[in-house]
Each structure stands twice: as C-alpha cells, then as structure tokens.
Prior knowledge:
Number of helices: 20
Largest sheet: 6 strands, mixed
Helix content: 40-55%
Structural class: alpha/beta
Distance between the termini: 65 Å
Strand order of the largest sheet: 13-12-9-16-14-15
Shape: globular
Amino acid sequence: MVQTKVIDGLLLRDMVLAGAAMLDKNREAVDALNVFPVPDGDTGTNMSLTMASATRELSQKEYLSAGEAAEALAKGALRGARGNSGVITSQLYRGFARALEGVEKITPPQFAQALRRGAETAYKAVMKPKEGTILTVARVIAEDAVRQAERAPEDYDALFDVILLTGDSILKKTQQMLPALTAAGVVDAGGRGLLLLYMGYAAVLRGEEIPTERLDFSADGEVAFEDDHDTMGEIEFAYCTEFLVQNLLPGTKDEDIDSFRRRLNRIGDCVLVVGDLSLVKVHVHTNEPGKALEFGQALGELVNLKIENMVQQRRDKIAQGAQKETKQEPPKDFGIVTVSLGEGFNSIFSDLSVDQIVEGGQTMNPSIEDISAAIARVNAKCVFVLPNNGNVILAAQQAAELTDGKQVLVIPTKNVAMGIAAAVAFQGSVSGEENARHMDEAAQRVRTGTVTYAVRDSDIDGLHIKQGDIIGLYNGKIVETGQSIHDVAAKLMAQIVTDDDELITVYYGKEVSPEDAQALTDEIAAQFDDCDVEIHRGGQPLYYYLISVE
C-alpha cells in the first residue's frame, strides 16, 4: 500500500479526477435515491455535471501548489454548479480552498481542517439548512477527520479510513433524520454522491485501481456543461448539435444509452449524454449532424433540435468585432432574466418583455455560470432573476453574488406560473427593491397544481403510489393519484380552488393534445363559473399540466 504523508497539487488533481469519475459512473444510482417519485430527481446528474466543470478547470494546467489546485477546483465547481446539490458541492470546495490558501503541500491535519471549513461554508450558503442531507454527511465526516488527524498527524491512510467509515455510518443515519427518507426507506442522495467523491480520493492515495463497473448500492434503499465556442481553438468539428430524446423505445436499457454515447464519440467531440430512460439530453460537436440525429432516433423521439455552424459563428464574431462601435448603448434601469423550459412558456415570457431566457428547469437545472452569463447579457442597472424552480433558487442567488457592476435581485419563484405572475407585476416606475417586493408578493399569491407520473413506488402522506401512476401535486405536495391524467387533474382542482379565487390558468405540456387540454379547461370553467379560466400551451416535458390559481 502506498504511504502518503503530504498531498501536492498534482496528487490532489488525481484524487479529484478519480472522485469525479466514481460519481459519474454511479450517477444514475444516486439519481434513483431521490425520494420524491416525480420524474425530475437528478441529484447525481447535477453533482456529476458540477464536478465535470471543476475537473476541466483543474486540468487546465499542472498545479504544483495544492492551494492553487484547490482554488482552481473551487472556481470550476462554482462556475458549473447545477441544482441545489451542485451548489452545495461547490460551496464545500469553496471553503476547502479558502482553508488551503498559500499551502504548497497538504498535511493530514490541514486536509481535515479544510474539510471542516468546507462544511461550514456550505451550511452558511443555505438559508434553512436541514439535517439528514449532504450537509450533515459533510459536517460529521469533517468533525471525525479533525479528531483523527490530531491523533495521527502524519497518517493519511488512517485519516481516510475514518472518512469512509464515518461517511458510511452517517449516511445510513440520514434515513432516520428526514421523514421523507424514512418513509421511502433510502439514504440521502447528495450524501451518497459526496461519499463517492471521497472513495475516489482514497483509492488514489492508496494506489488502488478505480472501479470501472457500477457499484452496488442496493443497501441504500430502493426506490451543464460548458460549451464556449468563442474560446475554442481551431475548429475540427463544425456543427454544434443538441437535442433531447424522449419517449425511448420499448426495451431500451442503460447500456443502449452508453452505446449511443460511444457512437457519438466516434463522429465528433465535446460529447455530453446525460439523463435516464425517461429523457436524455445530447450535445456533440460533429461534421455529421445527420448521423448524430440518426443515432438518437434509434433510441426514441427527438425534440428541441438545435444545429449551429460554429465556423460561421466564428466568422460572424470576427466581422462583428471589426465593425463594433466604441460607443455603447447606455444601460436601462431594469431587466429580467428567467429560467424556462418549454416553447410555450418561452413565448409567454418573451411576450412579457423578459430580456433573457435561460433554458432549464425540472429536468436540466441551469448552472450558476448559465445564469451569470444571462445576467451579464442584460444591459441594465438592476436585473431581476426568476429561477422558477426550487432547485434553481440557490444557483440564482450564487450567480447574483458573483455579479459585479449591477444590482441583481432574485425573486424566489418555485415554478413558471409564479414566474409569470412576478413578471406581470413588474413596474418600471418604482425602485428595484419596491419592484422586488411587489413581484414576490404576486408570485406568492399563486397556488399551483401539477400533474405528472410516478417514476418509482412510494408511500407518502398515506398515499400508496406505484411506478407509472398519475400523480397530482398541490404546491409541491402529492395529494392525488390515479390512472387517468384528466381525472387526477379534475380532482386536484377541487382541492385547490376556493370561493375567494378569481383566475385559473391551465398550462398544458408537450405530451397533452390541445383537444384534451381544452376539454379539461372547459370542465374546470363549468365547475368554477365564478372564476375566469384561461388556457395556454406551456410545452413543458414530463408534466402534463401546470395549473395556477389566484
């Protein structure tokens, strides 16, 4: 066994690369631990994409100094952080790096203290931290690591024995800490992802082989990618090709998705294939976009196709640079950035004069960098950000903190209906703070019902849910189940609408026909004849209906 007493920048890089590889190999198993049965549980995917950004930054050069390597690691994680789990992971590395400023080689006590600083930083980043999550796992591991390093200040092998043993122990205990985990009989997904990272660290330190096969986590319970064309060197593959694959063909397996990824690697580079058997997001640079689409069609239906000629984009960029005027338009007072997923919702936000729309939401959370870039593109003194997803709010807040030169105000909207209400409430004649208050009040008045399907068996709040059941959620809580989309939606409305309500808006998804949506809307209008009832095409994936009441 390799005996390591200090960790330099190069060894730290190898440890992080191994941890990221372990996480990526097992990200679907981590995704499966999400206890809520809605089809957008993606903790493993978000953490893996966050680590992909971190490792890209860390691999830009050979850092001999451990402190400099840790700084690059934290910078990359923060830029690419996706979803709450990704943002928390980035904060763990942010604190880790701060503790190692100026450190050339890390001793076991310094490593343990850096883990503790990381946990403290992550706790501070979350407004209402919950125990039984990745935060708990990170904190308890760090506390035991500090005690072990004090006992044996030169023994990394003993330190990682404690890190992994403590991690395994506290991860199992998370099942009893949160009622949702207890009911589902699973451990915390983010905690499992963090432990995978540390398992990769330990393997490198001990000179062990990194497992190439997926690990067995059955004991746990059952249940973005940076693509900057401007910074590319010589373009070998001209067409940036992106699309989603939905409604995968019967019999499709995870191995088929892996095979699809390998086929794309043979015809291009910058390949990204993420998702699961319900939805796959695809990105590739290739000279044969037709083949990429053909490979995708072998898996299922293609939607949201986008093919860009990067060579022509480069020409246009050069031409624009040559003609660019030195005088810039003065900034306007206010601008709005919103996160949206679905052509219908995108169109609605455009009609409301939103300046920038960031693609993402339930299935693919945008990164901090995605949101920051959108904020930067808005030429305004004050920018309002509408995250429109509970799993994006933290990333939006971090993006706001990273923005210099303009005021950024995040309105904590948890879905697009709340975002639309907030955008409608915007007034150009009042201050930013007053606007933010009005927009937030308008958003909070909106109550929402959503109809989707269950991706796993669950027992929640007295409801026995089977995989494939149609489920209705009221303000995020499952209150109805059944076999019919129409029936679940109708029953859901009976629980939401009160005598004081005046407006009901039905947004239907991409898998619902206009005729079915209109029939449901007519029925709702007849049942609640004191309310104005509107219908709009949202075009959102996975969620058949999003219905707002106010």
